[in-house]
Every structure is written in C-alpha cells, then in structure tokens.
Amino acid sequence: MVEYYNEKTKKTANWSDIVSQNPTASFPKVPSDDIAKHFGWEVLYNGEVPEVSFDGLKVLSFDGIEKNEQNQWIKKWSVVNRHKAYKDADGKTITKKSQDDAYIKSLTDNLEVSNRSKRDMLLRETDHYGLSDVTMNAKVKTYRQALRDLPTHENWPDLQESDWPTLS
C-alpha cells in the first residue's frame, strides 16, 4: 500500500485517508499520485533500512522523514538499543544491562520450552516401540536416549538442525 506525506501538516496517510479527509471531492478508485499531490500529499518511500543484529538487543527505529537526492520523501530508519536505563517508581535505576540480561534469559527460556516440546513430540512418535508386545531395536533405543540427552548438548538450547538426532 502506498503511503503519502504532507509536508505542510507533517503527517502521513494512505489513499483512503486522503479520500476521507476530502469528502466534497471526487476521487478515482485507483490511487493517483498526481491527484494526491494536488491535495498536498506526496508519495513517501522507505529509505535504506539498516541491518539489525541477530542478538535482539538492537531494534529498528523510525527516525523521521526527509527528502533524498532525487527530491523524494523517504522514511529514515536507525538501529537503536532495545533497552535503556531508567528510574522506576521507587527511584531505583534499572540498568540497560539488567534489562538486556533479562531479555536474553527470556529468549533462552522460550527456546528451551520450544526445544523440549519438539523433543517430547519426537519421543512420543516412537513410544509404540516400547509396548510390551514390540521389541525395541538398538537403533531406536539409541535415538530415544539421544533425544532425552539433548538438554545436556553443548549447543543447548541453540540447537542447529544437525544437532538433533535422527532415526535414519
């Protein structure tokens, strides 16, 4: 969906917003940049979007609107820290580091829960081999043991696909 910018009001809008803001005007169903411009709106392009680190401690942040070298309005983006120090209601300083550590711990905890769920599902898929009228072969026993041992894997909980045992 095309987004427009009005330099006079410093606001952004989409086509339906422009139409609804001008109830006495007649608009075509298909958006027209020329008509939008007549009402003071110009197309707003996304500027260059910087890379964000994978660790999750940096985030992409909208950083304003400016004209580029081609005289087009563009959105500016920057990478900023996810957290910053602040004082809580009791006046205690909550550091960026303590917030970062808590955030990373929550990501790790969630990944552990997800991995355990996947592991448990894979164990359930082979439970029928443990019934009293079925003999579990050594390959299945080894596979199941490897699944149970996953939480002690050196990469836990950041397992790669190759870290997961296979039955084949």
Written overview of the protein:
The protein is an alpha+beta fold. The chain folds into 2 domains: 3-81, no CATH class; 96-163. 32% of the residues lie in helices and 21% in strands. The protein has 4 helices and 7 strands, in the order ββααβββββαα. The protein has helices at 15-20, 33-38, 96-125, 138-148, and strands at residues 3-6, 11-14, 42-46, 58-67, 73-81, 86-87, 93-94. The strands form 2 sheets. A 5-stranded mixed sheet has the order 2-1-3-5-4. Strands 6-7 form a two-stranded antiparallel ribbon. The longest helix is centred in the middle third of the chain and has 30 residues, at 96-125. It is elongated, with a radius of gyration of 28 Å. The relative contact order is 0.08. The model has no long low-confidence stretch (mean pLDDT 94).
